[in-house]
Amino acid sequence: MHTQMDYSKAKDWIVRESRFNSNTLGKCESIMALGNGYMGLRSSTEEKYLGETRGYYVAGTFNKFNEEEVTELPNAADIINMEITINEDRFTLDAGKIVEYYRELNIRNGQLHRHVVWVSPKGDKLVLDFYRIVSLKDLHVVAQKVIITPLNNEVEIGITSGIDGRMTNSGSQHFSDGDKRFYEKKYMQFIQVTNQTKIKFVHNSALQFTVNGRKKELNPHIIMDRRRIYCKYRESLSQNDTLVIEKISNVYTSRDKEYENLDVKEIQKISLNSLKEAMQKGYDRLKEESERHWEEKVWNRVPVIIDSEDEYDQLAIRFAQYHMEIMTPDHDNRMCIAAKGLTGEGYKGHTFWDMDIFNLPYFIYSFPEIARKLLEYRYLSLEGARKKARENGYKGAQFPWESAWLDDGEVTPEWGAADIVTGLPTKIWSGFIEQHITADVAYAVWQYYQITGDQDFMDRYGYELIFDTATFWASRLEYSDEDNLYHINDVMGPDEYKEHVDDNAFTNYMAYWNIDKAIEFYEFLKNKNKDLFELLNEKMNLDSRWEEWKSKKPLIYLPQPREKDRVIPQDKEYLNLKNIDLTKYKNQEQVGTLFLDYNLEQVNKIQVSKQADIMMLFFLLEDKFSHDVKRANWNYYEPRTLHDSSLSLSTHCVLACDMGDYDMAYELFKRASRIDLGPNMNSSNDGIHAASLGGIWQSTVYGFGGVRMVNGELRIEPHLPKSWKSLSFPIYWHGQRLQIEVKNDLLKVENQTNKEEVTFINYGIKYTFKENITVKL
After folding, report:
1. Is 468 within a domain?
2. Between helices 690-698 and 311-326, what is the axis angle to 10°?
3. Cystine design at 686: which of 226, 332, 346, 662 (Cβ 3.0–4.6 Å)?
């Protein structure tokens, strides 16, 4: 497949588009998106094109268009727009002639650069360079710089730019038209308010100019129109003159913790003053400040270094780290990571189990202080989870499949795309029956605690989360007189190609695990921390809950391996379903081709899986199953798994390492890394695949680096791909920063904190050290 993507500059941290195609804009808008966790900005171009998606999202600002829709992250005003004319010809790459072109994202400093040599329809030849950043230092700032040089003629340049509030979310308009102001003939200000949640957005923007290195004041023609404010400028340039345009913008909202109690006029004043300070600094200084923050916060702190024959491998892990930084609202524990980050409208900005299982581990091992904030979001949304449990007739906390603002509760849409057979809308059952999310949250809490040893978090939040989730499962169990056991019926496991199943193995085992952990922590607190126990007992009536947990746990049905082949039934009926030849779907270039031949009702009756399900059990609870059981199930289920979910490949990569299938593991790593970076120019139209990026890190550190927390103990058992000479990365373990390096047949671990002894397991042998250790593999 011929692609626009070019990774020849991988060693320079560059993701590059080598040619322009206005029919495939979405991929680069997403994968080259900019952000800082507070805001996300799709990398659409300054000029506009048919089929583009101009996206600008501020974390946590959820709104519901009307009662027929669910809450979503609204697309805020467009502040990057810039219409440029050359002798009255509008600059557009759909007209004239492109002589040179590339667009590239430098993931080291977060700068987007587009270079164009263009000949207008009238024959004027120019070189244009567009630069853009979203500051990692000042979370509110977006900065742009455009450099224009005419190469063969004198030209008159026209510039029209401002703040455009006419954006929608695929047609849904979330904002009312607000006040507009123009200060000092320079500073534009536009206010918009979400129509349901009444969140106020204050946007500011201004332009400044230099010609041949000298500042020049251009007189603006200001226009205030419906839902937008903008300025028009004109300037004449001789051949080889250089015009530099700088546009600096910012956004502040009434959802910001610092400003939520302020009157909007105060926010207007604060944001305008902030813009003036940013304008004085100018683009280059703002870029340098942001670049230093990238180095200090990310690349110097958690560098993952791969010495591979293919430089793309190093780029892939850095790309994953870049996006996990810009998608994560670590400034505010009321917000969380969305399934598409802040790069598109896909999944409406909602948080799934993707965060708890796929993204969170990166932060636990790399930025434990951020991981804590992400889990505090789960605690702060407990009321919504308790509400969902009550509405469904259960006790405790039932976490929503899709989460948004803290008290929104369940926000999964009820209806999806049309059924190819019936033509009717397909009901989305995940919000009703994909209930394993509740145990996933509990697992994330436990995993964080085991890796960090953060007792304060457990005392304040963690125990309560685990007790309330266990209480849900105890009330969710269904007793059967046939076998005198408790079952969990009518659910959907991780494999979303199997709806309304009974006794999904992943769900049952995780529910059992959740209840078992609640019993363990109840008894720990009662014996070791009586003051906290009494406090929680009074609040939650733990004594009666404990009795229910203890009585029901031994009777929970846990699907067991079949005697003949050691295969665990994925659910009650899976092994009895029809087998078909899946070869063409396993070899597909695009996901979901199964649904060109079958509808979901038919897929439910076939032995085919969308993603890892039983395999997820071995990934999360690996110490509960023997190697022969894992191997038998791998051999059975992997051929039946299409990896149509972006969550699946990385899980299988890690497990392939565990199975000893290292060549297959590397191939799965490659496939996982190509979900967004690969040649499919439509794969990321709705936003990047946030969980798969966490999966790339897990494939690298869990899989090839061999790092795993197993039942509270650290295990390091590396196995590098043949094409990798070495791998090094840091992790945090119980407050100690460990630098791990794998090279040839040696494992080196250095404790860069040197406060306490560290113990880890390597192929059955325990090693304890304080400063550093080398182990021959």
Report:
1. no
2. 130
3. 346
Q: Would 185 be classed as within a structural domain?
A: yes
pLDDT in tens, 161-211: 999 999 999 999 999 999 999 999 999 999 999 999 999 999 999 999 999
- Residue 549's identity, in one-letter code, is W
Q: Does residue 130 lie in a domain region?
A: yes
Q: Taking the chain, what is the end-to-end CA distance rounded to the nearest angstrom?
A: 41
CB atoms within 10 A of CB 345: 22
* β-bridge partners, 223: 230
Residue 653's contacts (CB-CB under 8 Å, 6 or more residues apart) are 665, 668, 669, 672, 695, 699, 703
- Residue 451 belongs to what H/E stretch? helix 437-452
Domain that holds residue 250: 32-299
Q: What is the CATH number of the domain that holds 56?
A: 2.70.98.40
In terms of C-beta density within 10 A (0-12 exposed, 13-18 middle, 19 or more buried), how is residue 745 classed?
A: exposed
Predicted model pTM: 0.97
Contact present, 115 and 17 (Cβ < 8 Å): no
Residues constituting the chain: 777
Query: Using one digit for the tens of pLDDT, what is the confidence trace for 124-162?
Result: 999 999 999 999 999 999 999 999 999 999 999 999 999
Q: Give the contacts of 304 (CB within 8 A, at least 6 positions apart).
A: 317, 318, 321, 697, 700, 701, 727, 728, 729
Specify the residue for token string 């201004």.
206
Whether 101 maps to a domain, the answer reads yes
Residues identified as active-site: 496
**Number of separate domains in the chain:** 1
